Amino acid sequence: MSLAVVSRERVLYSGGTGYADFDALTPATAGTVYPWFSMTKPVTATAALRLSDHGLLDLKAPVHEYLDWLRAPGHAQPTVWQLLTHSAGLGNPLPVKWVHPAGSPGPDQEEMLRKLMARRRPFRYPVGGTGHYSNVGYLATAQIISQVSGEPFTGYVQREILGPLGMDSTGFSYPPGRPAATGYVRIPRPIAPVLVGVLPTGTLGPRHGDYSSINPFLVDGAGYGGLVGTVLDAAAFARLHLNDGLAALPGTATAPHASAGPQGPEGRRILKESTARAMRDIHVKGKQFDHSAGWFRKHTNGPDGSYVEHFGTGLGFWNIMRLYPERGRGIVIMSNSTTSYDYATLFSLILRMPWA
User: Fold this and answer.
1) Partners of 309 in the β-ladder
2) For 168, which DSSP code?
3) Buried b (16+ CB within 10 A) or exposed e, 204-217
């Protein structure tokens, strides 16, 4: 497990515990690389809203104004904002085969989206109704970002989000020369051949007792889960949102209202202040979580006050990024655990610590 705790001004703590790789007994550190999975979604949403802030993307426009072949049956048509808030009515097909080995090319993003939309009933729910979590919605968002920006989605995110934040150890492939965590899945030996049959060839690695290791892989859909990187880079992204869209320059602290321009002495504005705050306005009700653009929250806040968060889980990894805007704290955990863990208790302890 790798952990980072940040305030608006700086990193308060970063470190790791346990093994990033059990074969080599490599310790986990703050510099260990993990697949982000769905923790990518807040980054995708940030990229879309940056285009909106610059007048290049209309969040209220129907999706078919940007992708003319993506239409819901009937009169009601989903908007770009509804894609971001999981209220576009799209389903979420099982993601068992939504990965490919890290050394092989992934699927063409538009072709993948077109195939998913050609399936029977891609729209499973009423447009604009209750929130239903959908990877397909963020695959469509990434395609719209590419269409509007005139470049590949991954290139736009790298240039406009990751680069300005100094996220040099994060991208849509494994960064060369960086130690990476190995994922582990607890599977009884007799069931292991079944998993081999449903995963891409070469995904399953050596066994360690009841655990099967996972060879390096990438998520097929860059927009819904494609990032790979470190907890420190994820913490830099968390600080961006704690500071309402203002990115600190390297080696500087950031005040949330310091600079209204694109580049000031305190940092670069990635999002308008009002836009970053709107992203945290959780208003779309869902079955398990309530949603906004890129963030969600369980139905009850609990004792720690208001927060927004996003998980990033799947195939040997379990990550979480949570923001406490009123407290000015952000916490990111990335792990090669196979299941969830008691992060809520850990977060409560961290919030009570008298950081010096």
Assistant:
1) 296, 322
2) T
3) bbeeeeebbbbbbb
SS3 32: coil
Residue with the two structure tokens 């979604």: 41
Tokens of 180: 């990476």
Instruction: Name the β-bridge partners of 228.
Output: 35, 171
Tokens representing residue 277 in the block: 């705050």
User: How many CB atoms neighbour CB 274 within 10 A?
Assistant: 11
pLDDT tens sequence across 278-325: 999 999 999 889 999 999 998 765 555 589 999 999 989 999 999 999
Counting residues of the chain whose pLDDT is more than 90, the rounded percentage is 78
pTM of the model: 0.93
Phi, psi (deg, nearest 5) at residue 167: -85, 70
Going from the C-alpha of 184 to that of each of 35, 173, 218, the distances in angstroms are 13, 20, 15
Long-range contacts of 320-329, Cβ-Cβ distance < 8 Å, separation of 24 or more = 320/39, 321/39, 321/42, 321/234, 321/237, 321/238, 322/347, 323/238, 323/241, 323/242, 323/280, 323/295, 324/351, 325/241, 325/242, 325/280, 327/351, 328/7, 328/8, 328/242, 329/5, 329/6, 329/7, 329/242
Helices (H), the chain: 41-53, 80-84, 109-117, 135-149, 153-157, 192-198, 222-225, 231-242, 273-279, 343-352
